[in-house]
Design brief:
By secondary structure, this protein is α+β, with helices and mostly antiparallel strands. Helices cover 24% and strands 36% of the residues.
Length: 430
């Protein structure tokens, strides 16, 4: 990895362009770079420059600056011409960070050669070049979508029986007083045909789950309903999700399901754990912070969530990446107390989560940005534990889904919750 101090200076220019209807059409079919919601967002184009990366052979991760420090250095050295001044213009990096610092998966901030974006009816093009590079400018043009494809998926290291056993082990840890809550995941593994147009997967998620953040960063593709943090002009917002129930089969059944969730003591306790962890993490960085006393029911196509929106005013000039570091991992994806929950996860889960449940999003030169928790997603690309030779005709894919375990959790019910949470990514892959 090139350290931020030796990274060549970046020259950035943003200009408003005619309205763009389909941002995703401009993305690379084999390796899309996108952040979308209801048709708006940003898409990266062209050869990518890695502005920050962990997991590089021969480089001690402890010697690296934090992502926030590395990005400040890169941004400070950049020459930026941005008369548009919309959230997402100027110098932008897409980021995907590993869930656990011990993971074999890399954490990366990626700066593309160009970014095309759309927000509030305005479209723009940002070009980014290095003063030390002679790489040709990327072609800025829509690329026709390739044919439809489907993945093959099957149980991973934790099959349904194994997951219920893992839940029982989590309940034992709770009964022993190790944790008050622990979030345990299970995995599905499979393959995608080599040469697939991965934008098909992004598009299926974006169209099926309009109110989620649809993302594609370094092979991690998904549609997350949970905002980890948004920073814009000194304001910070987050959406906490914890407590889940499947949608009903008809209107009456659906209304009853929503009512049960809203009045479930187990789910309300789990939700309060998650909200408090966010408030505690934000407290050192904000002058004020607000959250509703009671959660609301968030309706998604396949399930109901208990949700709470949090908002505040930043007091210490913290960037989106600073707040990502403060917030991750939340109780919604790890448990409480956090450090103890991570240790229980490491002991019980027989796999590396990689980037599942880690932060994914984007950040600009001012430190503003949007990050979600990488949920309802799949990592498409090389498995670090396996070679490339066996994947000559296919590309490996792994997906995860989890549930929050607290005292009183039922293993079979938690397994059902993971099945519901798998549905968006499994349906889209199929």
């Amino acid at each position: 990895m090139t350290s931020p101090r030796r990274l060549p200076q970046l020259v950035v220019e943003t200009r408003e362009i005619d309205p763009v209807e389909d941002l995703l059409a401009f993305a690379d079919p084999r390796s899309p770079l996108a952040w979308l919601r209801r048709g708006e967002g940003i898409v990266g184009i062209g050869h990518m420059v890695t502005g920050y990366e962990t997991g590089v052979p021969g480089i001690d991760a402890d010697s690296l600056p934090s992502p926030a420090e590395a990005w400040r250095a890169i941004s400070a050295a950049a020459e930026i011409d941005d008369p548009v001044g919309v959230h997402g213009t100027g110098l932008v990096a897409f980021g995907t960070l590993a869930f656990d610092p011990r993971s074999r998966a890399s954490s990366r901030l990626i700066v593309p050669q160009a970014v095309i974006g759309r927000r509030d009816g305005r479209s723009w093009l940002t070009t980014i070049r290095s003063t030390a590079s002679s790489a040709p400018a990327p072609v800025i043009a829509p690329v026709p979508y390739g044919p439809y494809w489907s993945a093959t998926l099957g149980p991973g290291a934790l099959d349904p029986e194994g997951y219920q056993a893992a839940v029982r082990a989590g309940l034992d840890a709770i009964a022993a007083g190790e944790v008050g809550k622990v979030v345990l995941a299970r995995d599905l593994v499979g393959t995608v045909p080599a040469g697939s147009d991965l934008r098909r997967l992004v598009r299926a998620l974006a169209m099926g789950y309009l109110d989620t953040w649809t993302f594609a960063v370094d092979g991690l593709i998904g549609a997350s309903p949970e905002t980890l943090v948004t920073v814009s002009g000194g304001a910070v917002t987050a959406r906490v999700l914890a407590g889940t129930i499947p949608r009903g089969a008809d209107n009456d059944d659906d209304a009853a399901a929503s009512f049960r969730l809203a009045h479930s003591g187990k789910d309300l306790d789990e939700h309060q754990f998650a909200v408090q962890s966010v408030l505690d993490a934000l407290a050192p960085h904000v002058s004020s912070v607000r959250a509703d006393d009671e959660p609301f029911s968030l309706e998604l196509p396949n399930l109901w969530h208990l949700a709470t929106d949090v908002e505040g005013e930043i007091a210490d000039h913290a960037s989106a990446l600073d707040l990502v570091a403060a917030l991750h991992p939340t109780a919604a994806v790890a448990g409480t107390p956090t450090d103890a929950a991570i240790e229980v996860i490491r002991r019980i889960e027989p796999f590396d989560r990689r980037r599942y449940a880690g932060p994914v999003g984007w950040v600009d030169a001012q430190g503003d940005g949007e990050f979600a928790i990488a949920l309802r997603c799949a990592q498409i690309g090389a498995d670090p534990t396996r070679g490339f030779a066996e994947f000559s005709d296919t590309i490996p894919v792994v997906a995860h889904a989890g549930a929050g375990i607290v005292a009183g959790s039922d293993p079979e019910t938690e397994l059902l919750e993971t099945r519901v949470k798998f549905r968006p990514i499994v349906d889209a892959l199929a």
